[in-house]
Amino acid sequence: MAIEKMKYMKVGEPVVGSGSPLSVLLGPGVMGNIFDGIERPLQVIAANVGPFIPAGATADSLDFDKKWDVTMLVKAGDTVKGGTIFATCPETSIITHKSMLENINIPKFEENIRFISGVLEEREREEFTRLKVIKKTKKS
Asked: 134: domain range?
């Protein structure tokens, strides 16, 4: 997505990814703003530089100086996991932000656990079979 001037770009120019997903900052205060495609707050920028936004103009997407009423839902010693909502913060009378822990999915880790479990089960079967053979041999 091109936002600034592309004077020196030509058709066929190589595009290089950063390896990071496109992301925006979310939190209290986002509902009262109007943003462009890269989360620049247009009203704040217009107040600073006028209605015609020059190239490179920027401003924080959220007001970091404003204090919000945050309610903690967990206390020291509580057990939490991915998806646990640990705090809330009302922005309007109908919108409450919920802060939760990221639900981390580590496929390789889960694959390793399944592999190790499978190996252990296989060893148990082998051990059982070996004991049956030894027992059978002793009887003969």
From this structure: 105-140
The CA distances from residue 40 to 34, 51, 132, in Å, are: 8, 14, 72
Q: Within this chain, do residues 78 and 97 fall inside the same structural domain, yes or no? A: yes
What beta strand segments (E) does 2-128 contain?
Answer: 71-72, 85-90, 96-100
Whether 30 and 63 share a structural domain = yes
Strands (E), 6-140: 71-72, 85-90, 96-100
pLDDT tens-digit map of 19-78:
887 778 888 888 888 888 888 889 999 999 998 888 888 898 888 888 889 999 988 888
1, part of any domain: no
- From the CB of residue 61, how many other CB atoms can be counted at a distance below 10 Å? 19
Residue 114: exposed, middle, or buried by beta-carbon count in 10 A (0-12, 13-18, 19+)? exposed
Question: Model pTM?
Answer: 0.50
Question: Does residue 135 lie in a domain region?
Answer: yes
